User: Fold 3-oxoadipate enol-lactonase from Prauserella cavernicola.
Amino acid sequence: MKVNHVVEGPPEGEVVVLSGSIGSNLSMWDPQVGPLISAGFRVVRYDQRGHGRTAVPDHPATLAELGGDVLELLDTLGVERAHVVGLSLGGMTAMWLGRHAPERVGGLVLCCTSARLGTPESWRQRADDARARGMAAIADTSIGRWFTADWLVAHPDLGREYHHMTAATPAEGYAACCHAIGGMDLVPDLPEITAPTLVIAGADDPATPPEGHGDVLAKSIPGARLEIVEQAAHLGNVERPERFSELITTHLKAVR
Ligand SMILES: O=C(O)CCC(=O)CC(=O)O
Assistant:
């Protein structure tokens, strides 16, 4: 799979891969690129398969395939080892990499994510909705999980931009990644992850709340630490950009 990506930052910097959520594209990481480059990192961000400018697969995706896309991208770029920062589906991809390709992973930052989310049936239903009702309807619902109501009132233009991001995602690409989440159970893998890991959860995240999601990761991954960010829903890196960037860069500077 040819993965659409952008590389920015000093060529000699340690590489940080940014992996995004379902219904997003690589621009969801705009707030973190400047701070990471200022901290000396080389930033690689990419579109998940079926999202943004990465092609829609002809079959339902698995987490192993999403992780494999990152490994292939690192091979293409000639990068042996990278830090991986992922949010939601991106965090799941990051955990898969930490478990199955530990030699390729430096530090991990797992944002607003989970080791087991919903049921296969609930994700099948979401995929069916995407196909039947269209992506604008999916965006109408997900925007209320991505951001708090107060933030949406204060940032109407950004709210529209992120709504458009999901609405513009191909329904089949979205459905393919619903299958990856529905088929995922990373719980048994967590104790096997050896990368130094920071878990960040949004206090107001209705999709992957700290309780039962971020706290499980932090308890089960050896040595992991949990930070809960106030006034942040699911796309906490956009709603609280300075705090997320500070936590991410501080962790990655400490482990490099
Ligand atoms: O964002 C993800 O990758 C999964 C969680 C989710 O579906 C949140 C949403 O878009 O409503």
The mean pLDDT is 98. The longest strand covers residues 105-111. The domain at 5-116+185-255 is CATH 3.40.50.1820 (Rossmann fold).
